[in-house]
Amino acid sequence: KDVAVSPLQEIPLEAETTDDFGVVRWGLAYELTGKASKSITLGEKVAGREKNSAKHLLALEELKAVPDELLAWHAWAEDIGPDGKVTYTDTWLWDRSGRFQLDTLTEGQL
Q1: DSSP secondary-structure letter at 84?
Q2: What integer pLDDT is reported at residue 25 of this predicted model?
Q3: What pTM was estimated for this model as a whole?
Q4: Pairing of strands 86-90, 38-46
């Protein structure tokens, strides 16, 4: 969903993972318009059928975000397939991405 935020705000991001055979590592990836994508590992070594969740606070000011930029993010996981091999999955496949439109706010709106 699209959400309007200030470039001074912190954005709470969260993700959950589970897999029948286990997860090697998982996390979040994000990018601002025109800037390189960054990845954050939230967890490692999750046993099969175990559910794991985590939250991350993304400080837009530290990213030097500016008004009218778009922040897009998605969750990813390196999981173990039934053949024992590691595979990579991300939520773009299911279109569960988050988008934040950065707005200009006056001092009284903060």
Answers
A1: S
A2: 94
A3: 0.74
A4: unpaired
Assign 3-class secondary structure to 6-36: CCCCEEEEEEEECCCCCEEEEEEEEEECCCC
In the chain, the N- to C-terminal Cα span, in Å, equals 22
Tokens matching residue 27: 């996390």
Q: State pLDDT tens for residues 32-89.
A: 888 899 999 999 998 988 988 888 998 988 988 888 788 888 888 898 888 888 988 8
- Residue 59: Cβ-neighbour burial (10 angstroms; 0-12, 13-18, 19+): exposed
CB atoms within 10 A of CB 68: 11
What length is written for the chain? 110
If phi over 0 gives left and psi between -120 and 50 gives alpha, with beta otherwise, what is residue 24?
alpha
Distance CA 93, CA 20 (A): 19
